Amino acid sequence: MPRFFVPASDIADGTASVRGSEFRHLQRVLRLREGDHVTLFDDAGTEHAGVVVSLSPRVALVRVTASTMPRRESPLALTLYQGIPKGRKMDLVVEKATELGVQTIVPFHSAFSLGAGAGAGAKRERWQRIAVAAAKQSGRTSVPAIAAPIAFTEVVDAAAAHDLRLLFFEGTGTVPFVALPEPATPPQSAAIAIGPEGGFSRDETAAARDAGFALVDMGPRILRTETAALVAATLVQARWGDLGAAHSHRDA
Ligand code: SAM
Q1: What are 35-77's pLDDT values in tens digits?
Q2: Which of 139, 128, 132 lies closest to 105, judged by CA?
Q3: pTM of the model
Q4: Which of 188, 210, 211, 251 is the most buried (most CB within 10 A)?
């Protein structure tokens, strides 16, 4: 069943308005017609079954026939702080982190991100489109937010907003992930920080530790930044989120 993202603000009185790139995908790529059945998901965690009732040059109207709130979102509000990598690696990180249930992705510049962030603002729109596509494909009922790039100092400042703060580091002074102590209460939100290709500077790891980040080791091999982001998200979601958990079978 074709799935489309529609903001909850575009759903009223049982009718949804599909616009923009989602409309183009519906009308031009999939060539749907009046009477075709679709699934919509909005930014409020709700999924809607619907039928296309009209197509104008810019909007498709869908009559909502049923609405549910399937449990497809992780109970852990996971924020991935990602040192902006070179080239198009961030596209892969965004797509896979979305599939892994990450809630927010925050690209950051740091001492060794070496200008990889140039034009990150323009790339942000592409990254957000990738997140919508990955959320549609993976059956999520919400789309991760891709934040505007920030400096690493702002990552450290933002740390306090999270119950759990893990900076993944392949150097000395780390705790193996498996040896991380269990927090007194299960975390509801977590921040994971992954360095760019050049890694973190000594000052950055020190500042993170002072701000309450645990420096965490993922094992004896050096992972590429894009691999590290996905392994870290997997480890955290498996331990404190819903990865590997039983789930009520998804709707067909
Ligand atoms: N500075 C590293 C070096 O000297 O080769 C390269 C950094 S690595 C390519 C990019 C990021 O992935 C690191 O900053 C860290 O966040 C993460 N990472 C890679 N391997 C890791 C490991 N074994 N344990 C924890 N983090 C790791």
Answers
A1: 999 999 998 889 999 999 999 999 999 999 999 998 899 999 9
A2: 128
A3: 0.89
A4: 211
